[in-house]
Amino acid sequence: MSRVGKKIINIPKGVKVNINGLHIDATGPLGTLKYTIPAWLSAKQEGETILIICENLTNDKKAIYGLTRALVNNMVTGVNKAFAKSLEIRGIGFKAAVNGTELHMQLGYTHPCVLKIPAGVTVQVAENTKISVSGADRYMVGEFANKIRSQRIPEPYKGTGIRYVGEYVRKKVGKTGVAAGAAAGGGAK
């Protein structure tokens, strides 16, 4: 059995789960999310818990079994408590602002980077450099945060770009650092 797949999913208070064959709907204070499980799995609700069941588990089905359980758990958790990702912008003149349903960013290019905020995702900008992405769907939050980060990936020489809060980017020594090492006696004779 899959270790993740056989775990019980607890339903938090304030969340309603409706299982209709292969379709699972979760409704909570943050909205409604839907998921369809594979045909060879089944879901059973017992009181305040959900159990994903697999009859004939083979090696190739173990990963899908665990993934399905994790996706249903994220769905049930997300409609009750929003998932969030925080990013920070580093660089002179780099800034961001939310205008309606768009995120506008100045990232050192000749043009502003404009991203349309997907439905179900909330974006907040603090101090022009701190971006917070939140929403009920964990996949959508992570995907949009990664899309923001991909506009200007952290660069290892100057340290500029967009990074997740707490992300470590190793700084590299540039050409001047290599030349200084050679002048100090580290070069070939």
Protein traits:
single chain, alpha+beta, Outer Surface Protein A, domain 3, 2 domains, 13 strands, elongated
List the helices and strands and how they pair.
Layout: E1 9-10, E2 16-20, E3 23-28, E4 31-36, E5 41-46, E6 49-54, H1 59-78, E7 83-90, E8 95-99, E9 102-106, E10 113-116, E11 121-126, E12 130-135, H2 138-149, E13 161-164, H3 175-186
Antiparallel strand pairs: 1-6, 2-3, 3-4, 5-6, 7-12, 7-13, 8-9, 9-10, 11-12
Mind explaining what this structure looks like?
By secondary structure, the chain is α+β, with helices and mostly antiparallel strands. The chain has two domains: 9-78, Outer Surface Protein A, domain 3, CATH 3.90.930.12; 83-164, Alpha-Beta Complex (Outer Surface Protein A, domain 3), CATH 3.90.930. It has helices spanning 59-78, 138-149, 175-186, and strands spanning 9-10, 16-20, 23-28, 31-36, 41-46, 49-54, 83-90, 95-99, 102-106, 113-116, 121-126, 130-135, 161-164. The strands form four sheets. The protein has a four-stranded antiparallel sheet, covered by helices on one side. It is elongated, with a radius of gyration of 23 Å. The relative contact order is 0.13.
Average pLDDT rating: 89
Strand content: 35-45%
Please tell me the CATH architecture of the largest domain by its name: Alpha-Beta Complex
What ranges have pLDDT less than 50 throughout 5 or more consecutive residues?
none
* Shape summary: elongated
The CATH homologous superfamily of the largest domain: Ribosomal protein L6
Q: Secondary-structure element sequence?
A: EEEEEEHEEEEEEHEH
- Oligomer, anyone? single chain
Backbone CA Rg: 23 Å
Share of helix, binned: 10-25%
End-to-end separation = 64 Å
Number of helices, counting only DSSP H or I runs of 4 residues or more = 3
What's the count of strands? 13
